[in-house]
């Protein structure tokens, strides 16, 4: 009967680095036709590094202040800024950060050495009425069109620094998405908080069907619901704490194993070493297991 076959399927999954939480999950997974992915840490490795520095400030003051503030954040972009500054012996430890507030989907607002500082994306700059010069706009676009993310640093009423931060697309993603399609997936989607230009550049490299960028976590959930309302069975694949609402809402929540404990707890399937091979294996296994029980 069904339970025995399902258990066999689950056991087979565990051997291949996939944790599937219960037989019912296998049945639901087999019916999934829409795969929705978070970008950073899911389609990419989440190993961020600063690869470009546009400095419009004196003595790299923009970078120094940014590093001091980002030291308090665990966002992947923040970690890249801090590492780059440490590697380049930027003396950011002397900067006194007295308060720092996260602005959802935008970045950070902080006070450093008594001065108010903004670090984040173009939306944050627009909200705070910081205008970019034509040079700064073209620098920003040049970086983003290559698929790198950007961090803008502003104080004194103007942009002081723009950092380009790259991340590595996971190996074999393009081929894996094609394989998943051959197994029964009809639509692949990328949802990200990152800017549209960067998201599009990454999407072009991996051949994903749809891209939605500049989203807040609750807007990602809205997309998951929208696909479900259209009659699709949706799996959401993600890693961050940010993504828990989407992992829970999707018919199947899939956590990349390198993800946070929260993501692992709130998901139905855990890919233990974050490989796309594991995802293919798990989906293929669900199809076979369900066939065996029919
Ligand atoms: P995601 O994890 O998908 O990037 P977030 O909501 O964490 O989504 O962030 C959305 C955007 O806000 C980021 O892409 C970035 O532009 C900006 N941002 C958030 N936190 C920071 C930070 N600490 N430093 C710089 N930019 C940030
Ligand atoms: Mg994220």
Automatic annotation (TrEMBL):
<comment type="similarity">
    <text>Belongs to the cation transport ATPase (P-type) (TC 3.A.3) family. Type IB subfamily.</text>
</comment>
<protein>
    <recommendedName>
        <fullName>Cd(2+)-exporting ATPase</fullName>
    </recommendedName>
</protein>
